[in-house]
Design goal:
alpha/beta; binds (2S)-2-hydroxy-3-(4-hydroxyphenyl)propanoic acid; identical protein binding; PyrdxlP-dep_Trfase_small; 393 residues; Aspartate Aminotransferase, domain 2; binds pyridoxal-5'-phosphate; 13 helices; 2 domains; two-stranded parallel ribbon
């Protein structure tokens, strides 16, 4: 049966990780996959998570199934983090999923179930898996203009002009904060304009928020999402604990449906559970149990928030440091890096220049020009600045 298959296309980001491992040069630098790293280049277990894990080890009595929706304490905590003080709070329902990836797929399946001829509008560019996941669920995908390659910021005018054409059969997928891959976020005014368009033209807003706390802070990073939630009848959210709890491999996330009533939201939740049954059935428990433990304990929550703030500050320091290092080498061509948010920046380097960075300098960045700021180390900023200037000459 399977002989007729052609070879799979490698994941452009995950395959970089393997190439990096195989590189024997001591000066090599991994700016590829979106994983947070500390100043030693490590991705440690967060203290709050570690303490929750110890508690869980002592108190957990069984590994019996939890249920289709996963941990309901976790689900409630996810809604609290994102929409607590909005009018949507009482008309929303959440399902624990295997990462935000699981949420993206479940929500895509839900859209297909409700309306098979849905078109999902995705920013150009966007997270590598957005298009494949939507298409795998049977949905059509259309790109909207987003990144201005000249200014390295969002081209709001072009984006809003295109989104004004989206109608009732359309879904507009937005990054909640810390846009992957560009690092360029829409402004609060853009969120307001998109909310108004959704209400005027009837498209469904879909927010994917995988980096809450990595931009301007936990609350600030949800401000756009909250404005939407407050002002539209219906919207969907995919959220992730991979980055802000450092739970990557534990596959921890949630799908949230906001409707005009709690009853409607719960109906959608029920249909997601039925879809999950036809797929992976139930999400893995461990990561969600850790998050629920942290967020239901004031002391662990305080520890987690301060760790998250520290990570956020490190990213900002590195952004400022890299910009300065390039300036110290006589150029202001990379000043935009300081203005970007979160873990990533699209540098504007071409595929050829990215290959040159890798071959000549041992610097691994994604082919679309994206670098992971968390992969930088203070003592290597000058090396990177020189390399960037060398390949862009
Ligand atoms: N959405 C975006 C925008 C991402 O960058 C990622 C990164 O991994 C995901 C979703 C998937 O996250 P998860 O690990 O929770 O599946
Ligand atoms: O964009 C990133 O680097 C992260 C991690 O297929 C990731 O979101 C990368 C590739 C992939 C899934 C997740």
């Amino acid at each position: 049966m399977f002989k007729q298959l052609t070879e799979a296309q490698p994941d452009p980001i995950l395959s970089l990780t393997q190439m990096f491992r195989d590189d024997t040069r001591s000066e090599k630098m991994d700016l590829g996959i979106g994983v947070y790293r500390n100043s030693h280049g490590e991705t440690p277990i967060m203290q709050a998570v570690f303490q929750a894990e110890q508690r869980l080890l002592e108190t957990q009595k069984t590994k019996a199934y939890v249920g289709l929706a996963g941990d309901e304490v976790f689900n409630q905590a996810m809604m609290d983090l994102l929409i607590k003080d909005t009018s949507a709070y009482g008309r929303a329902a959440a399902v624990q999923t295997p990462g935000a990836s699981g949420a993206l797929r479940m929500l895509a399946d839900l859209m297909y179930l409700a309306q098979p001829d849905t078109t999902v509008w995705i920013s150009n560019p966007s997270y590598v898996n957005h298009k494949p996941v939507m298409e795998a669920a049977g949905l059509k995908v259309k790109l909207y203009p987003y990144f201005d390659t000249a200014t390295k910021q969002v081209n709001s005018e072009a984006m809003l002009a295109e989104l004004a054409k989206a109608g009732p059969k359309d879904v507009v997928l937005l990054h909640g904060c810390c846009h992957n891959p560009t690092g360029a976020d829409i402004s609060f005014d853009d969120w307001k304009a998109i909310t108004a368009l959704a209400n005027k033209n009837g498209f469904l807003p879909f927010v994917d928020i995988a980096y809450q706390g990595f931009g301007d802070g936990l609350e600030q990073d949800a401000a756009g999402l909250r404005h939407l939630a407050d002002n539209v009848e219906e919207m969907i959210v995919a959220t992730s604990c991979s980055k802000n709890f450092g739970l990557y491999r534990e596959r921890t996330g949630a799908a949230i449906v906001i409707s005009d009533s709690l009853k409607e939201a719960q109906k959608s939740k029920g249909r997601i559970l039925q879809l999950a049954r036809a797929s992976y059935t139930m999400p893995p428990d461990h990561g969600a149990a850790l998050v629920a433990t942290v967020l239901n304990d004031a002391s662990l929550t305080a520890t987690w928030k301060s760790e998250l703030t520290e990570m956020n500050q490190r990213l900002r320091r590195l952004r400022a440091g890299l910009t300065q290092a390039v300036r110290d080498n006589g150029s202001d061509a990379f000043d935009f890096i300081e203005k970007h948010k979160g873990m990533f920046s699209v540098t504007g380097l071409s595929q050829e220049q990215i290959i040159q960075l890798r071959n000549e300098f041992g610097i691994y960045a994604v082919g679309d020009g994206r670098i992971n700021i968390a992969g930088l180390q203070e003592q290597k900023l000058d090396y990177l600045a020189r390399a960037l200037l060398s390949v862009s000459r």
